[in-house]
Structures are given as C-alpha cells and as structure tokens.
Design goal:
Strand content of chain B: over 45%
Oligomer: heterodimer
Structural class of chain B: mainly beta
Structural class of chain A: mainly beta
Largest sheet of chain B: 7 strands, mixed
Shape of chain B: globular
Number of helices of chain A: 0
Chain lengths: 112, 114
C-alpha cells in the first residue's frame, strides 16, 4: 500500500522557471509533511516541512502548499537553478521526528 | 547543524559474509534511529526503528535475523547484514532523531554483494 503518492516521476525545467511537485496521502493520522532533496550517492537533506494547521509555508525559493481536505501537498521551487537538479521526496509522518513514509521521488533537471 | 556520520560509505563483499554499517550522531544524542533501504532510482523504504537500549522494531517483511540492528548508546546504532547475498545489494541510509523532533540523515552506505 503506497500511502504517499508523488508526481511527476521526472521533471525538466529551464533555469529561472518554477518546478512543481505534487504529493497525495491517504493516512489521515499523518500530521507532519517534510520535503527532502537528495543528490546521487548521498542521504536526503531536509528542505522544508509543514504541518496541517497552515496552508502554505515559504522558505527562500521553496514553498509548500497544503490542502488538508484534499489530502494533498505540493512543493514549488521558484527561480530554479542548475544546482537544484536532484531527486526530491515528499514524506509524511505521525508527528515530527517519527518514522517517515516517503513518496516515490521526482527527479528534477534544471537546464541552463 | 547536527551531523550524522555513516560508515562505511561504500562496501563490497562476497556472498555469504556479514557486513556492519555504523551510524553515529556526532553532536547530539539520538534517542531514536531509523534505518532505510533504497534501490536505484527508487524511494526510501523504512526497514526498522531502533531505540537506545531496547530491541529494534522491524517493518513488515524485513527479516530481523538477517538485518541485525543494535543501538547500544545514544550516539551509535549499527546495522549488520548477515550472510549477505546479491539481492541485499542496496543503498542503506540511517537517520537519527535528537531530543526534539528533528531528523537528520546520514550520507548512506552503498553495499554491493558479489
């Protein structure tokens, strides 16, 4: 059972463009939704996270939008740069710091 | 920021041997550590949760006798892949939680079993 579904699987965007990645979850007990960035051969690094009591959170060029009724959340990467080329994972857990259920990942390629 | 050190970063072993992977929290005490497995171009799958001083909790389908986890101190957890076989070849990643709620990931261990 895939509890967190992520789309698209891959994404190509021009430098300066916006990358948008979407995730949907099934378990209504989830209340913590982080996004991770992973480069090849490395562990994931936390980008930004949100809780269901807010609909949007912005940190620098990264924004999470959250729709509790639809059980969906998305990551927007503004002004995408070649250095943003990586695999991005959404995740969910019951409370921050608990075990994470990851989405399938999105490989983002930012073309110069 | 907090650092989680994972060692080795890469290991190649012969089929039938055992391999130990270490996960250390360098500047904080980790009450809980998680072990994940990741196949090429795939997502991270949780294998087990380990709490210091107690037995690990394994996810459904993970063989506890094959993947031995020890969390002997607040800064060290180890994963031992016993009698490794080629199908165990994968990228193994640990993460550690501090006294708060933040999770920090190690840099991963690429295991190749010949």
């Amino acid at each position: 059972q895939q509890q967190v579904k992520q789309s698209p699987q891959s994404l190509i965007v021009q430098k300066g463009g916006i990358s948008i990645i979407n995730c949907a979850y099934e378990n209504t007990a989830f209340d913590y939704f982080p996004w991770y960035q992973q480069f090849p051969g490395k562990g994931p690094a936390l980008l930004i996270a949100i809780r269901p009591d807010v609909s949007e959170k912005k940190e620098g060029r990264f924004t999470i939008s959250f729709n509790k009724s639809a059980k969906q959340f998305s990551l927007h990467i503004m002004d995408s740069q070649p250095g943003d080329s990586a695999t991005y994972f959404c995740a969910a857990s019951q409370a921050a710091g608990n075990k994470l259920t990851f989405g399938g990942g999105t490989r983002v390629l930012v073309k110069p | 920021g907090a650092v989680v050190s994972q060692h080795p970063s890469r290991v190649i072993c012969k089929s039938g041997t055992s391999v130990k992977i270490e996960c250390r929290s360098l500047d904080f005490q980790a009450t809980t550590m998680f072990w994940y497995r990741q196949f090429p171009k795939k997502s991270l799958m949780l294998m087990a949760t380990s709490n210091e001083g107690s037995k690990a909790t394994y996810e459904q389908g993970v063989e506890k006798d094959k993947f031995l986890i020890n969390h002997a101190s607040l800064t060290l957890s180890t994963l031992t892949v016993t009698s490794a076989h080629p199908e165990d070849s994968s990228f193994y990643i640990c993460s550690a939680r501090d006294w708060g709620e933040k999770l920090f990931f190690g840099s991963g261990t690429q295991l190749s079993v010949l």
